[in-house]
Amino acid sequence: MSGRHSTAAGSGPRLRVTEIFHSLQGEADSVGWPTVFVRLTGCPLRCGYCDTAYAFQGGQWMALDEILAAVAAFGTRRVTVTGGEPLAQRDCLSLLSRLCDAGHEVSLETSGALDVGGVDERVIKVMDIKTPGSGEAARNRWENLAHLRPRDQLKFVVCDRADYEWAVARLREHGLERRCQVLFSPAWGRLEARELAGWILADRLPVRLQIQLHKVLWGDVPGR
Q: pTM for the full model?
């Protein structure tokens, strides 16, 4: 597990953790900030562009106290809980609250396919809306939109022009920019960021172009 933290048996809630590591936030509104990432194991989706398939299985069981201690060791205020799909593990909700209680600024990266209604209100939700190009558009849980607050973020990973037009239609259908910040991100290796930028500008979209900073810096290196 990245971060070099060992796992011992503990009592109480536990989570299966793929890795805990310190890096720069590569996405969303806090891009560029030093952040501790807690990557939980498991995901019920199989998106065609997934870059964390190594988190589908394996990992190590850790008690919440162990996770909190591992995070605290980095001395960084910002923490992102990600996956896989972190909400696939029931006790993720407890971890999120515990991290907030410890004084961290906490964000959750979630696929949008699972209920976010129980997420602590102090947590910033960064939620995907899966495009057809992902192969998982049928899994979008549209009821989740009602749980979004202005500081939350919605992310569309766009694979091609058809994905873009689909995303624009959803943006307008649901008035998404009035709910929270909307991010359009080119699928790494499938769509050039410059091309997506041109489409956004041509259509005067009220969205933010997102480029995965960590991949620009380090490429497809796990745990960075």
A: 0.91
